[in-house]
Every structure is written in C-alpha cells, then in structure tokens.
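Entry 14. Structure prediction run on the chain below.
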Amino acid sequence: MSRIVRAALKLAPTTAPTTAFGAAPLGAARARAVDNASPALTFVTRGYADAASPPLLVAMMGVQRPLNQIHRMIENTGAEIKESRNVSLGGRSSNMFLVTGADPMALKREFANERNDFFSVFEARNTIRDIKGPYCETSPLLPFVRRATLHVPYKPGVVNEIADFLCSKGVTLSHLDEYRSGKDVVLEGILHLPTGLAEFPAVEEAYILKKLESLGVSVREFGKVEGRPRAEKAATS
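Output returned:
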C-alpha cells in the first residue's frame, strides 16, 4: 500500500455504528481534521461543496410518477443532480436527490403543486459518505467495499440479527434493500468493511462469511467493487 493511500486511509472518515443500519457522524474535531488536511491525501466531508453553493438534499415521498418528470422539474430550477436514490414501495415512491447549484426556494416553488405526502430541502452534510466506495472508483477505500446478496429463511428478528452482527464488527451497511422471495428474506446491499486504522480492527472476510452461514444465511454474492485507474477513467470520460 502506497504512502499516499495509507495517509488517505488514516484521515478518511471512519464509522462507529449506532443503529442497525447506520453509523455515527464524524465528530467535530475529526471533521475539522479532514477538512483542513491536504486535498491530495484525503477526502473532504463535503464531496460536492463549493464556496457559492453548498450541496442540498431534496427528499420527497408521494404518489408514484415517472422519474424523468421529477428529474426535469429539479433541473428546471438550475440545479445539477449529482446522485439520487429512488424506490417504489406500497404504491408510493420515495426519492432523494443530492444537488448543487440549487436555490432551495426555487425547488420548493417547483414542487408546490405536486401531491407529495412529504417534501423537504435540507443542506447536505458529510457528503463524502456518498462519493466514497462504489461511487468513487479511484477511492483508496474501494478495497474495503463489498456488494452483497444474502438469502435467509424468514423468522421474526432475523434481519436485526444479521445487521447487529455486521455492525458489531464495524461493518457499515451504506445501502440495503430487503424483500421476500418465497419463504426467504433477500438482502441486497453495499457493505464497507473496517479498515483497521480507527475504532474497529480489521476483520477477516472469511470470518464474516462463516458467521453469516452459522446464522442460516446463504451468501449468494459477496464481491469486491471494481474500480478503474485514474488515467483510464480520464481517457474514457
């Protein structure tokens, strides 16, 4: 591992899980340390920020409608969509957009006449969590990211049991989809393994897989997320 990668890992945000599916935010002192460090060696807590336009999070839930319509309405305000998460469940759609170059009031006016059960615009915080791992192909944290598909027979509390084990070992579940397939619960998500440089020691992948199997889990996928060298990425963009 190169000196630059080691330095980036030491300064990058680390996780201390506080809930089954989340991790505690950076403390103030650590956040300042990351913000003030050399940009060549580390990440910043706001991955998309600039002086004029802090990133915003646009969140809504309501009657399902075409995604291209929502995209167009956001872009009509002059905002640029950096990332989004969209899901339909129970006859409703839930949409979250990370945007820059946006006027919060313009966004609210654009959606004022829409039939949303919920709509809000927040200033985004700690957006580095959104661009590390699978969304930043040159990130030095990429070797610690896994794309997982797990099947387990349903019983009350089985998902909590799996999540509690993973989080107790410092694994962050940054994305998790849960659905049923026959008598099984299927979990598909992105897992970030601990680097071993902060709160949690590194953990052997073989140990995690063996423990999951002991919980009755059939591991269908647990693979590394592949990145590309920076030079190759620039040549193909």
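The radius of gyration is 19 Å.
Filed with the rest of this week's runs.
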